[in-house]
Amino acid sequence: MILRIDIDEGEASIEEVADGPVGDILARCQETPEGYRYGVGKRSSEPPELGHLRVVAEAVMEHRQIKQLENGTVIVEVNGVRVSKAKPVLRELAIALGISRLNGNGGTQNTRQLGADIIAALTP
Predict the structure, then answer these.
(1) 4, 14 in Cβ contact below 8 A?
(2) Is 29:37 a contact under the CB 8 Å cutoff?
(3) Residue 94 contacts by C-beta under 8 Å, 6 or more apart in sequence?
(4) Which residue spans within 1-124 are E strands per DSSP?
(5) Spatial contact of 83 and 76, defined as CB atoms under 8 Å apart
(6) pTM for this structure?
(7) Alpha-carbon distance 8 to 3, whole Å?
(8) Which of 49, 97, 63, 6 is nearest to 76 (CA)?
(9) Domain extents for the chain?
C-alpha cells in the first residue's frame, strides 16, 4: 500500500494512493539508487474506487449518508452522490450535532475521527 500525506486548509490527512500485492506495485515503480520511486501523477478529482471494502458503520442525517469502511476510511454521499472531499460535509454535520472538532490531544480531528464521532452520535 502506498499512502500520501495531504495538507488541506492547514490540516493533514492520509490518502491511499495505491493498494495491491507488493509485486504489482513494484512493477509500477522506477528503481533509483535510493530505492524505488512510485510516480503518482496528478490527483484525480474523482474519488478512489473503494467498492471492494465492506461498510462497517453508517448513519444518515437529512440528505447526507456517512459510511465508515473496514479500513477506517469515511465516505460521504449527498443526495446519493459520493463527494470527493468528505471533511467539509463532516464539519457541517459536527457543528449541527454539537460535536467538537478537536480530538483528545487538543488537535483537530482528522476525517476518520470526525466521521466515526458523527456516526456514533447518529446511531442509537
Answers:
(1) yes
(2) yes
(3) 100, 101, 114, 117, 118
(4) 2-8, 11-18, 29-32, 35-38, 55-61, 64-69, 74-78, 81-82
(5) yes
(6) 0.63
(7) 16
(8) 63
(9) 1-43, 50-124
Contact (Cβ atoms closer than 8 angstroms) between residue 77 and residue 84: no
* Helix-helix angle 87-97:111-122, to 10 degrees: 40
Per-residue pLDDT tens over the stretch 26-63: 888 888 999 888 887 665 555 566 778 899 999 999 99
Judge whether 76 and 64 are in contact, CB under 8 Å: yes
Helices then strands, counting H and E runs in the chain, come out as 3, 8
State phi, psi for 3 to the nearest 5 degrees.
Answer: -115, 155
Q: CA distances (Å), 6 to each of 3, 16, 68, in order?
A: 10, 10, 20
Length of the chain: 124
3-state DSSP assignment of residue 108:
strand
